[in-house]
Amino acid sequence: MNNQPIGVFDSGVGGLSVLTELRRLLPNEEYLFVADQAHVPYGLRSREEVRRYCFGIVDFLLRHGSKLVIVACNTASAAALQPLRTIHPDIPFVGMEPAVKPAAEESRRGVIGVIATEATFQGELFASVVHRYARGVKVVTHTVPGLVEWIEAGETEGPALEARLRLQLQPLLDAGIDELVLGCTHYPFARQALQNVVGPDVKIIDPAPAIARRTAQVLAKRNLCSVDGAGSVLCFTSGDPDAFSRISRKLLEVELPVRGIRWPAGSATEGELFESEGEG
Ligand code: DGL
User: Fold this and answer.
1) Which of 149, 147, 194 is nearest to 173 (CA)?
2) Same fold yes or no, 6-96+209-275 and 100-206
3) Is 74 close to ligand 1, i.e. is its CB under 6 Å away?
4) pTM > 0.90
5) Which of 264 and 80 is assigned the larger pLDDT?
6) Which pLDDT tens digit goes with each residue over 33-75?
């Protein structure tokens, strides 16, 4: 039993799709959520840069007592999950990997689509997932430039977004996919728009519920479950706290408390992320 918080982080609001599933399955846990909105999108940055940000965020979450850290970002998991486990061998980490396994198992036509950032596709993690789980199944990958930015702005639906997505996803439809894996934690917020574009015959897979189940297993195995916690959430953003509040309210229809955090002088190295004075 352990009532310390669970740390969760993403480049932005995308990780809230994972946080929602965590709170549904583990409602007694306390959560600290960091959105590195000063640097979103991570998908356009180098692996070294994303790694440095992840190291700084994890250091912040550990200084605030996190007992387990969830890397609620596919791009960050691809860049930093292994080094984080090496640097912090005593801390359990749960990372994201595109849900190729269930998609490959369920595909009737043997053709699945995965959408994610370029950085996610380039990482060894994605190659290893495809190697392990997609035997005999064709995996068609595609980036969706701009979608993270739309969601960061709270734009998750409407004809303009769908028209853009239709153009971007046409190659996947032409390839005959019948499963579409959401390989970025922002994308579940545009799930309805994506479903409208790919049509009812394509099943969309969001890995967030599986990540919540995996977290529950890790907590139980290590005897880290909270028994009488109040189930609170405290968010931090390196961007604008008011904007985070507004967008998260729109996406989740709940009010989340948020405080500002700052990277010094626009750069990030381990341990330099601090709470801003007088915000929140
Ligand atoms: N939520 C991140 C992911 O899962 C977004 C990527 C980005 O910031 O570009 O990959």
Assistant:
1) 194
2) yes
3) yes
4) yes
5) 80
6) 999 999 999 999 999 999 999 999 999 999 999 999 999 999 9
Which CATH number is associated with domain 6-96+209-275? 3.40.50.1860
Task: Tell me the best of 94, 185, 211 to mutate to test the pocket of ligand 1, counting ligand atoms within 8 Å of each CB and taking the most.
Answer: 185
Is residue 43 within 8 A of residue 36, CB to CB? The reply is no
* DSSP count for the chain of H helices, then E strands: 11, 11
Active site residue 54: no
- 76, 52 Cβ separation under 8 angstroms: no
Pinpoint the alpha helices (H) of 107-240. 118-122, 124-133, 147-152, 159-174, 191-198, 208-221
**How does pLDDT run across 195-250, given as a tens digit for each residue?**
999 999 999 999 999 999 999 999 999 999 998 888 899 999 999 999 999 999 99
Which one is catalytic: 54, 73, 225, 235?
73
Domain residue ranges in the chain: 6-96+209-275, 100-206
Q: Which two tokens stand for residue 244?
A: 């985070």
Reply yes or no on whether the pLDDT at 280 is more than 80. Answer: no
Distance 184 CA to ligand 1 centre (A): 5
As a dihedral over the C-alpha atoms of residue 61, residue 67, residue 72, residue 76, rounded to 10 degrees, the angle is 60
Tokens read off for 277: 């004075």
Residue 185 Cβ contacting ligand 1 at under 6 Å: yes
Which CATH number does 100-206 carry? Answer: 3.40.50.1860
Q: Is the CB of 77 under 6 A from ligand 1?
A: no
